[in-house]
Amino acid sequence: MFTVFGVPSPALFGQLLLGLINGSFYAILSLGLAVIFGLLNIINFTHGALYMMGAFVAWMLLNYAGIGYWWALGLAPIIVGVFGVVLEKVLIARLYKLDHLYGLLLTFGLALIIQGIFRNQYGVSGLPYAIPPELAGGQRIAIGSTPIMFLPNYRGWVIVASAVVCFATWFVIEKTKLGSYLRAATENPTLVQAFGVNVPLMITLTYGFGVALAGFAGVLAAPIYSVNPNMGGDIIIVVFAVVVIGGMGSILGAILTGFGLGLVEGLTKVFYPEASATVIFVIMVLVLLVKPAGLFGRSA
Amino acid sequence: MPEAATMSRPAPSGTAAPLLAIDGLEAWYGESHVLHGMSFHVNPGEVVTLLGRNGAGKTTTMKSIIGIMGRRRGSVRYDGVETIAMASRNIARLGIGYVPEERGIFSSLSVSENLTLPPQVKPGGLSVEQIHELFPNLKERAGSQGTKLSGGEQQMLAIGRILRTGAKLLLLDEPTEGLAPVIVQQIGRTIGRLKSQGFTIVLVEQNFRFAQTVADRHYVVEQGRVVDMIPNSDLDANIDKLHGYLGV
Ligand SMILES: Nc1ncnc2c1ncn2[C@@H]1O[C@H](COP(=O)(O)OP(=O)(O)OP(=O)(O)O)[C@@H](O)[C@H]1O
Ligand SMILES: [Mg+2]
After folding, report:
1. Burial of residue A88 (number of CB atoms within 10 Å: 0-12, 13-18, 19+)
2. Which residues of A touch B109 (CB under 8 A)?
3. How would DSSP label each residue in A66-129?
4. Is residue A283, in this structure, part of any structural domain at all?
5. What one-character-per-residue DSSP string does chain B give?
6. How many Å apart are CA B52 and CA B107, to the nearest integer?
7. Domain boundaries, chain B
8. SS3 for A299?
9. CB–CB contact B165 A196 (8 Å)
10. DSSP class of residue A274?
11. In chain A, what residues touch B92 (CB-CB under 8 Å)?
């Protein structure tokens, strides 16, 4: 064991790990919000509720159908994504010609309804979801004979899985033909449509994809946090701050800011725990003062 | 609208069916009524210009043809198909390519991504190589960000990208606006080549000297209507009248 500024190394690295885990969730959730905001121009307040729904779908698949974690990791995002497609088609699509505020109110109201339904059905005490047996246990990490930290396997997996999903999403959007349609339609949907592209369909699928990311994060979260109707509401406020700091609509910004702020939060827990709950919001205020468009945002 | 009815006129006799026939077209921005019964036609293989002062409604006419004016009425027939109630993506798919006045180059796309963005809507479009041959600058700068190009190069990109799609009717909204004379000449030669390859072109121009070098006929637009049609061969004879229309 060694110390850094008087903090024992396992405590420091333990908090950094926790920060990175939180950062993984911030990154996937803010990525989905950024993709949706870019194309639909709405701030999707249902995002937290759909993250929660992803966790619940995983729980239901296991408890009602005997379908385990690995299948749920693929199925729950699809189910949440299809649910999102229906929401977009039936409700959200009616608002594009109106002020942003209406989209915000609608998605906020939907979030309350979805959360209310789950709270009614399952209470607020939280349901357990076991870590898949393949990822139980953990690794003792040491340099020579100096112990650095204990890394639970599941947490390592969450970080890797989030990083891979974020990278893949970034790659598809920034480097592929499909992504070029998305980028172009984000800039000028009318013109892309005037070239013969079915932009309304793209919008629907993008919304479905964005909320599927939230569903995926929900499944990842289920074994770490208990499956709870309030889990989305708790995290989404921080995620909105992350999106504001990173810059609305910036894909890379959302990912880097998500992971980065998770780490900052972890470090704050070590060195100045009193501020750990507010540090992200303090950073948000500072960034807004200096760079109103966000760290990675293009000013409009 | 009664005025729409009076403005409508039959296609001139002795020519093949027009590729584009516009009759009594009206359009609005919100409450503001901008087109008041536009009527004109374009025959296959023709280059036709819309001339007129600032704010006459030329851009609005182009937007109405491609279907991105929210509120429009009257008749726009392309190749015999009535498009007035169609979504713009379906109008484009009939074979119409649109170059907007502001060029519409995407800044988050590279030059080559911009070039290949519009999907193929009909067979027979130019290949990327042919477009590069037409506009060599686009090849050199294929990897640059689209909006890092000069104004002239952006205009070439905006034209080049719709040549790939197989569109047969090209709508070019002021392609020479703000460009240096050599670039204007290059665009003029390009339009000539495209015409000789059988493209049909509607060209919005403020510069009738340029329009004269490329067009077959000119329609004069004033306050949302076509008020005159001048064949290119008669342009010089009508120069005073035209000066009056354009206020130059
Ligand atoms: N987005 C808009 N909202 C409201 N009014 C508009 C809009 N765009 C154009 N107009 C008005 O519609 C009328 C026709 O404009 P349009 O752009 O079609 O003219 P134009 O002939 O293309 O002019 P220019 O030569 O300046 O390009 C003008 O009076 C203009 O002020
Ligand atoms: Mg114009």
Report:
1. buried
2. 180, 183-184
3. ---HHHHHHHHHHHHHHHHHHHHHHTGGGGTTS-HHHHHHHHHHHHHHHHHHHHHHH-SS-B--
4. no
5. -HHHHHH--PPPTTSPPPSEEEEEEEEEETTEEEEEEEEEEE-TT-EEEEE--TTSSHHHHHHHHHT--SEEEEEEEETTEE-TTS-HHHHHTTTEEEE-TT----TTSBHHHHHH-SPP-SS-PPPHHHHHHH-HHHHHTTTSBGGGS-HHHHHHHHHHHHHTTT-SEEEEE-TTTT--HHHHHHHHHHHHHHHHTT-EEEEEES-HHHHHHH-SEEEEEETTEEEEEEEGGGTGGGHHHHHHHHT-
6. 31
7. 3-95+168-246, 107-165
8. coil
9. yes
10. G
11. 193-196
> Could you say which architecture CATH assigns to the domain B3-95+168-246?
3-Layer(aba) Sandwich (3.40)
Amino acid at the residue B6: T
The burial of B12, by beta-carbon neighbours within 10 Å (0-12 exposed, 13-18 middle, 19 or more buried), is given as exposed
Please give the Cα distance from A248 to A240 (Å, whole number). Answer: 10
- Token pair, residue B205, equals 């121009």
Q: Does A199 touch chain B (CB under 8 A)?
A: yes
d(CA B98, CA B101): 10
Tens-place pLDDT, residues A60-83:
999 999 999 999 999 999 999 999
Pocket of ligand 1 (CB under 6 A): B 29, 32, 34, 52, 54-60, 101, 206
**Is the residue at A103 inside a domain?**
yes
**Contact status, residue A191 vs residue B100, Cβ threshold 8 Å:** yes
Structural tokens at position B118: 């519009």
Q: DSSP assignment, residue A134?
A: G
Q: Which atom of ligand 1 is nearest to the CA of B224?
A: 14
Range of the domain at A59: 22-122+153-230
Q: How far is B218 from chain A (nearest CA, A)?
A: 25
Pairing of strands B200-205, B47-51: parallel
Instruction: Identify which has the larger pLDDT, A41 or A289.
Output: A289
Range list of H helices, chain A: 9-40, 47-65, 69-90, 100-122, 153-175, 177-187, 189-194, 199-221, 231-246, 251-271, 279-290
Q: pLDDT tens for residues B102-156?
A: 999 999 999 999 999 999 999 999 999 999 999 999 999 999 999 999 999 999 9
Mean pLDDT of the region A127-147: 87
Between vectors from CA B227 to CA B223 and to CA B229, what angle results, nearest 5°? 135
Confidence at residue B11, expressed as pLDDT on a 0 to 100 scale: 46
Q: B54 Cβ partners below 8 Å, 6+ apart?
A: B206
In a domain, A246, yes or no: no
Instruction: Note whether A194 contacts B98, CB cutoff 8 Å.
Output: yes
Tokens of A55: 């966790």
Other CB atoms within 10 A of residue B82 CB: 11
Portion 139-158 of A in contact with B at CB < 8 A: none
pLDDT digits (tens, 9 = 90+) for B7-38: 444 444 445 689 999 999 999 999 999 999 99
Whether A259 is covered by a domain: the verdict is: no
Contact A194 B68 (CB under 8 A): yes
- What is the total count of domains within chain A? 1
